[in-house]
Amino acid sequence: MEPIDLVRRLADGNPHSGERLARAFGVSRAAVWKQMAKLKEWELEIHAVRGSGYRLSRSLDLLDVDALVARCAQHCAAPIERIEVFPALESTNRRLLGGPVPRPGALSACLAEYQTAGRGRHGRRWHAPFGAGLCLSVAWQFAETPPDLAALTLAAGVAIRRAVRQTAGVDVALKWPNDLVWDDRKLGGILVELSGEAQGGCHVVIGLGLNVSMPRELLASVCDWTRGAADLAEASGSEPSRTVLAADAVAALGELLASYSRSGFAPYHREWLAADYLGGKSIRFGPGTLGIARGIDADGALRVETPEGALRRVISGDVSVRPAV
């Protein structure tokens, strides 16, 4: 019996007696209790109900690996070299960066129900309880480094926005350079990492962290935004299938990567502007610099109007919205 086998039994949120669990897995009740400790390491809250057994504090919509692979194969424009799904992993990005590089023109994907060291930009931790969000990454090998590589993060935001709208019916705003926003709250983020290869090629990994159905008490504290975080269950009024959402996200990123060497950021520029969360807002960027966000250039640079009326291009750094006064 592996810990994930026990999670699958408990995923419905109903009580399950230790005796029946032990009998189902052909182990002792002590062995079941021992595996419960592992589930707590995954931040799963387990209640021991006298006379009834064990139950999780919330039901879980676990990823269906077979359905995920089948939907990806059906909808992904690029050939899929491999898809890996883990109960727990340090980081899906790290797994793909350290693993075999996919052949040019093929996609590799990695997903985890729970990450112990999920990261955002500048090494910030991305935290989501077990089975409450999407932790996924895709890897791609460009035969030659595309000229619009700097804007790939923005294009990935548009691709994920399309997938979320298709699966959950939610229109997501995009905050430069890599945040997904709903109701002025952080819904998710994208992290693009790369390593150079011989003959001018480029190994790219695109990571996505997306809140799907988070415990309510966690949303206010999971990030440092003024209004906290949001999830798709609240935004859509129901809980979208994590399996369908994950497959559609992989397919959307596969379509992006398969065409990016030819078309670059241009097909995504207008849609990004239409979803621009910062547009027209007073912002703070760099070391205390103020301005008004005025969209992005064709290469993905942020356009900022300074207090003196000049337009400035910002190509990297943190940006925050100034609170109304």
Primary descriptors:
globular; SH3 type barrels; 10 helices; alpha+beta; 3 domains; 14 strands; five-stranded antiparallel β-sheet; 325 residues; seven-stranded mixed β-sheet
Q: What does the model show?
A:
There is one protein chain. The strands form three sheets. The chain has a seven-stranded mixed β-sheet with strand order 3-4-5-9-8-7-6, sandwiched between helices. The protein has 325 residues and is an alpha+beta fold. The radius of gyration is 21 Å and the shape is globular. It is built from ten helices and 14 strands. The chain folds into three domains: 3-56, Orthogonal Bundle (Arc Repressor Mutant, subunit A), CATH 1.10.10.10; 65-273, BirA Bifunctional Protein, domain 2 (2-Layer Sandwich); 278-321, SH3 type barrels (Roll), CATH 2.30.30.100. It has helices spanning 3-10, 18-25, 29-41, 65-75, 92-98, 152-168, 216-219, 232-236, 242-263, 266-274, and strands at 46-49, 53-56, 80-89, 107-115, 133-142, 173-175, 179-182, 185-196, 202-211, 282-285, 289-296, 302-305, 311-314, 319-321.
CATH class descriptor name of the largest domain? Alpha Beta
Q: Helix coverage percent of residues?
A: 25-40%
Tell me the structural class.
alpha+beta
Total DSSP E strands: 14
Shape, per Cα inertia axes: globular
Overall residue-averaged pLDDT value: 91
The percentage of residues in β strands lies in 25-35%
Global Rg: 21 Å
How many domains? 3
CATH architecture descriptor name of the largest domain: 2-Layer Sandwich
**Name of the CATH homologous superfamily of the largest domain:** Bira Bifunctional Protein, Domain 2
Q: Give the low-pLDDT segments.
A: none
Main β sheet profile: 7 strands, mixed
Spatial sequence of strands, sheet with the most strands: 3-4-5-9-8-7-6
Order of helices and strands: HHHEEHEHEEHEEEEHHHHEEEEE
CATH topology of the largest domain: BirA Bifunctional Protein, domain 2
Helix count from the secondary structure assignment: 10
Question: What's the N-to-C terminus distance?
Answer: 58 Å
